[in-house]
Specification:
By secondary structure, the protein is an alpha+beta fold. The chain contains four helices and nine strands, in the order αββββαββαβββα. It has one domain. Strand 7 and strand 8 form a beta hairpin.
Length: 131
């Protein structure tokens, strides 16, 4: 997927878009394709992005690193879903747009594959090692 990264600096999200959460199990995902912002929630309030992503995508299988064309990082990691049921977790995300999932981590999906684009090499190596 080669889609331009969106910047989040100096934007007033409330003026431009509406962030409606989509519940996936215990996690609510408010992902906006307009501004590229992703927020993670539970019944108790905001959830750490790493915790939310582990709950939703932790069982996905690493396909491998890919050259990034149009991504906000030089390389991306591609993941596939382990089952059709888990594929539905991707339905909470807008398709074919890069969103800032956490500090130094961008994500995108086409509905079948999850792409993660860490902007720091250490995070990239940790994600590969954790697979």
């Amino acid at each position: 997927m080669s889609h331009p990264a969106r910047t989040l600096m100096a934007m007033d999200y409330e003026k431009w878009c509406e962030h409606k959460p989509v519940w996936v199990g215990r996690i609510a995902v408010a992902a906006c394709g307009e501004c590229g912002r992703v927020d993670w929630f539970s019944n108790e309030g905001p959830v750490d992005p790493a915790e939310a992503m582990a709950a939703l995508f932790g069982s996905f299988d690493l396909i491998g690193p890919l050259d990034a064309l149009g991504a906000p990082a030089p390389e991306v990691l591609a993941y596939t879903t382990p089952s059709p049921r888990k594929r539905r977790n991707l339905d909470a995300l807008p398709r074919k747009v890069w969103m800032k999932a956490a500090p130094h981590l961008w994500m995108s999906t086409d509905g079948e594959t999850l792409l993660l684009a860490p902007t720091r090499r250490l995070m990239f190596e940790n994600l590969i090692r954790g697979a």
